[in-house]
Every structure is written in structure tokens, then in C-alpha cells.
Protein: Replication restart protein PriA
Amino acid sequence: EPEETPAKPEFAPEPVAAYASVVLDIPTRALSEPFAYGIPRSIANEAQIGSTVLVHFGNRAAAGYIVDIAPELGDLQGINALDPARIKAIEAILSKPLFTAEAARIARWMSREYVATLSECLRLFLPPGGSPRVVKGDDGVWAVERPAVKPIQNRWVMLTPEGFDYTPPKTAVRQRQLIEALQCGPVTTRDLNLLYNSMSATIKALEKRGVVVVEERRAWRGCSEQTTLSSATGKAPVALTNGQKQALAQIERARLDAHGDVVLVDGVTGSGKTEVYLSAIERVLAAGRSACVLVPEISLTAQTVGRFRSRFGETVAVFHSRLSAGERLDQWDMVASGAARVVVGARSALFCPLDDPGLIIIDEEHETSYKQGSSPRYHAREVAAEMARRYRCPLVLGSATPSAEALDRCRRGTYNGATWTRVEMPERPGHAVLPTVRIADLRREFSHGSRSMFSKPLMEGLERVVERREKAVLLHNRRGFAPFLMCRECGCVPTCNHCSTALTYHERTHTLQCHTCGSSWRVQPYPAPTSRCPKCGSRYLAKMGLGTQQIEDALHQMLPEDVAIIRMDADSTRGKDAHKKLLERFDAADCAVLLGTQMIAKGLDFPEVTLVGVVNADFALKLPDFRAGERAYDLLEQVAGRAGRGDRPGEVIIQTYLPEDPVIRAVAEHDRSIFTDYDLDQRRDALYPPFVRLVNILVWSTKADDAQDYIGRIAKLLKRRWHAAAPDFLRAGRAVPQVLGPASCVIERAKDRYRFHLLVKSPVGYHVSDDIDACLKEVGSVRGVSVSVDVDAYDL
Ligand code: ADP
Ligand code: ZN
Ligand code: ZN
Structure:
């Protein structure tokens, strides 16, 4: 926060040329809405939407961003009527625009849609690295300091025209190597030194003779060496399948219509969706526009990024959570400077400053990671649809297991004024066929006396893989499931005494840990018991559930020594590049088993994988969430899709205690409708999305009574409001919004705060956010009580 106060202007205030709405860069909710300032004539040309400005607020100096400009005070968006005489003037312009006027409008739309403050929505569009610092230089001039990294340069070596004809002497081996390496195009000195163990002397020698030249160009952190190299060769596009052609034609139609229409590419795993994206992007780039591709964090692997970089080369910027601060800034600069015209990234990449977006793609559209868990609690799909509408460009959604929301909108044909079209790609290109799926009924295995974690079919499958020297993928899904301790005598499961959630058992450190608040306790469970059941005092406090480690141990015992067993879970992928290295080991092995949590289910494309096993599918099915089925179906379908991607057919074996579950049957019979029909009926009966929009209002406080009282007042106001407006809703042919609760949350206490929530079910197409915002303003704030609103809530 700025400490100094600039001296009061000594001269009479300058005449004002126009007015600006300025959002202050101060993280206080009370100051998060824009304030009006005058734009003095002297800086009127520089003042633009997106500019960082220095203003006075109260008696201090602060940085802010212009979000709107208008000739008259009354025309400013989102500012209440003010007296022009009391308006202060902007002191100085501190930076050129950091975001566009369109970005400011999208931020305003988000703030309304998600009941979030404008400043937190705006922050998404700002360069990474946090708030700027406003400082006064020795010369008395104010300036803004943003985190920045020093640009780095790459030295590119290339052949001169004469160089192409130069034949080095027979004995000059190094020179021959260098000239051969440069035949396809420029290569950096770093790559050359890496590949050939120091080429510096040779480069110098040939530079003297005019055979090569060395040129410096800005390099961007976050673009790794190998990918720059492979871009030099560039892979030629393949001939497209009929399904791919159809999908492309539909995207092309949407592009030419320029209404912001949506195309859902509903293609089984391995059907070539990524290839469709690549071709669509090619056309957009040819038209002089840019493209943004969102990929779930979990599938943002080197493999995925490599495919984009090998097609589009140096014009691809990448955003994911493993980037260092410097890499993130450099990738951002790369986009802002126009050097990158394709962005591949997780959710937040949607907000980077692409110039003239002509296509937005969301791969694995159904993924829950597209929903942001903190304010603004946006869903990337919905924000992208709004952006597509404003930029008049297509939004392409891809999935093998589309969300109920996307399917429903395609069934209706339109949503929010845009056309939604579904294109199916039910087949894989070439010889690759869908794998056969077998169900191993664990109940039967158990009743036949088997106590092994591997059923007979799975064991036979693994033996076959070893015999034929192929590869297998084993999924040990632990989403929503972690090892815990349970008393075998009374059934008690130890819980956190701050949070009332079940504690997770960590075998390596002999601790019980709370994953809500981070508390931990040391334990010595059965069979080396010094810890006793907190309820009955029994010594039989034992571990439940299998860890990935245990399965790995069992595999080592079962399989011959020359089979590589590679475990991928949160523990084994902690280090930088650990993920990539494990996959490289799997790729290089002659015969191997890749065992992992859900992180291995997606995006991997290894043609030698012929067997996929699911150790226990039931953990995914039994979560207390109306989307549990959708998630489980997605997971199983995705992991099954890892098998048989090459010429050899694949087999999938799913172990379960619940073979009749519609999810399991749909996967086994390759018929999605078995699951989706059932799921849709359930949602219709219980009134869940896509039939309603869900809003979760959460209130928390260290004082339970305060929180309960507060949420009670919100509930009452909302109920009263909608009760009164009921005739209007009915007249408009709409259902009346419903209020469920208030109730205490599933996690009643977290970090010693008591949590209550209420659920709103709103008719689709109604702006329920406005009503909620109005009620929250009416209730006002109460000391020590926090509230959050989650529109289109996921985790209830
Ligand atoms: P998806 O994204 O739907 O899982 P991919 O685009 O990754 O599918 O394609 C799966 C595999 O098929 C990849 O190895 C890809 O190179 C290959 N492939 C895609 N389209 C074609 C095509 N038209 N002809 C031949 N092979 C293709
Ligand atoms: Zn007990
Ligand atoms: Zn806790």
C-alpha cells in the first residue's frame, strides 16, 4: 500500500476533458466498485480504458484502472449520480492500457453474473505478478512498478546463402555436423551446445568464413528447448476422417456467421478431436486472428503442448500452474506483444491479452476444473460463451462425455441467443477400434474366497501383456477417497475436532491429517497399536482402503523383474518435471505397467497400451454429489480410452462391487445413453441442472449463532421477494425460484468457523444473481460474518 501522500496541487485544477470510472487497486470489498474521476485536458489523449492511473482517494495516493470513459459524468457505467464539483481529477497516467475496453465489459458482465466485485473480476485480466507499486521518484514524478523479469535473448545460428554451397574439409567433423544441423533452418546456440557438446568454437570459425551468421532474438521463458527444435521441422497435417471434416465444416460455418455460435464436438476418445482443433486454428491464423485453447490442468502434459508447438511453432504460448513466476510473465508478454497468437492453457488462460481472438476451444468441456473455486466463482465454459458472443467468434467444446448442460443446450438448439450444434465423431481413425470392456464382479471373487486386490480376469490380462511385451495402464482412482482409520470394534472413524471431517491417514509419517484445516496428529494404528479408538478405546484402530504404494508392491511381487512398474500419484510427481520423466520412462520401456491415480486417466496417447485395468470403480460412484455419476462415467470412459490407440486391439477390465450401476453398464456396453438417460431422469425428478441453475450461498463465522442468524435473514428476504413476484414468474411461463435451507454444511466447521448454506434453484434463463445481490445489499454486512455466493455451484 502506498504510504506517501503527494503534495496538494499548487495550481488551480485543470479543466476536465471527460470523465472516467476508475477501479482502485486496493483489495478491500468496500472500495471494489468504480469511482468517478475527471480527466484533465493535458492527459486526455493518453487516458484510455485499461490505463493504470494515479488518483487521490481520501488523503492517500493509489493506483487504479480506467474501466470506462464518457464525456458527461452521468453517462459513466456503474456510477451513481455525483456532483461534478466534488469529483477529483486523475493525477497522472502510469501505464499504457493493460486491458481492452471489451475486457472491461466482460469483467463487468462477470461481476454481475457471479455476484463478485468488479475489481476481483478485473484482476483476472491483469498481467501476472500481483498489484503494482506506486512510487515517487527522486525527481518527484510518480511511477508504477510492476513485477517484471529481464528479457532473455537466444542466439540463433543460421546458414548464409554462401553457406549452403560450402563443403567443409573431410577431416572437419564438427563443421560437417553443424552444417547438417542447420540445413532445416536456424537453431539456437543453446540447442547446438546441448546436442553436440559445445559447438561454440566451430560456430566462431564458420562465422569468420561467412558460412553462418548468428542473430540475437528475444526468447521467452517457459518455451522449452526441445519444442523449439521440433518446430523447425513441423509435422504435416494428416488427411481428415469424415467425422473430422464434418466437425470442421460446422466450425467454419460458425466462424463465417460470426454470431458467437457454439459447436460441441462429441467424439469418443482417440477419434481425433485434437486434430480438428489444430485444423480449425490453422484457418483462424490464416484469417489473421488468434486462438485460445483451454485444456484441463491435468492433461496439460508435455505431450499435448508438444502437438500444438509442433504444428504452430513459436507462436504458441502456454499457461499452467507449474510455470515459475518468470516463465508466467514471459509467456504473458509473449501474448501481449503479439509474438504468440495461439494460447494453450488451463482455465485462467481465457483472460490473457490475445489480440483479436477468432476462436475459443475448450477441450474436455465437462471437466469440473473449469469452475473456479474462489471468487469470482466463474465457469470457463460460460465466460467463454460470453466472450465468443462479444468477439463474434466460434466457441468449440470438445468431449467424449459431454456435460448434461452442453447436451441439453444442443438439444434445445439455442441458448442465450447463440446457436448450439452437436457434431458426433463416433469412430477412431485408421485401424484403431474401441477396446472391449469386461467387468470383474468383486462380490463373486470375494465369495469364491479370493482376498487379492486383483481379480482373475485382471491377473490374466496382466500376464498376457507380459507375455506379448506390451504395456498396461492401471487406474487406482482415489478422487474423494483417501485412506482413513476405522475402529473394527465400534466403527468409529477419527474426525478433526476443528472441522468435523474424516481424517486422512498418512502411513509414511504415521499421522492423521485434516485436509480442510491442515491439522495433524501422530498415530500408531493396528497392528502396532499404541493409539486407541477415541470413542471406545479399542486397540483395533486399522487402516481402510488401499494406497497406490500397496498396489505397486503387489505388482512387484506378481510380475517378472524386467517389467517396468511406474507409479504416478501426488507423491511421485512432486518434483519439477517428475511427471514428464515418469511418462518418458513408460514410453521408453519395452514392457511396462503404469499405475496411477486419476492423473493418468486423461490425455495420454501411447499406442502400445493394450490393457487398462480399473482397480476399484466404486469409489467414484459413491460420492454424495448429483454429478458423481457424470464424473465417474467420464473417468472410466477416459481411462478406457487409453487402450488400443495403436494397431493392436485394447482390453479394459473394470473391477467393481456394483456391476448393475448404469455408469458401469454404459461403459461396458459402449452405450452412453444407458447412463445419460438414467442421469437425466434423476436430475429432472430432483430438480438439478440442466433443469435449473443452482446457486449456493455460504455463510461462515467463529460464532455459530451469528452465522445462523445472518443466513436466516438472507433466506427470509429471498423467500419473501420471490413469493411476492410469483405471479410475474408464472405469467412469464417460468418456475418461481426456490430456496432450500438454510442448513449447516456437510463440513459443519472448518478452521473453527461454523458454516451454513442455502441453495437457490433458479429457472434457466432468469437473472437470479441480481435478486441475490439486491438481498445481500439489503441485509448489509455483519462484523465477523463472511458470505460467499456460488452461481452454478459444483461442490455443495
Ligand atoms: P482425441 O483428441 O479425440 O483423443 P486425437 O486427436 O488425439 O484424438 O487422435 C488420436 C490419435 O489418432 C492420434 O495419435 C492422432 O495423431 C491420430 N489421428 C487423428 N486424426 C487422424 C486422421 N485423420 N488420420 C490418421 N490418424 C489420425
Ligand atoms: Zn471404537
Ligand atoms: Zn480440520
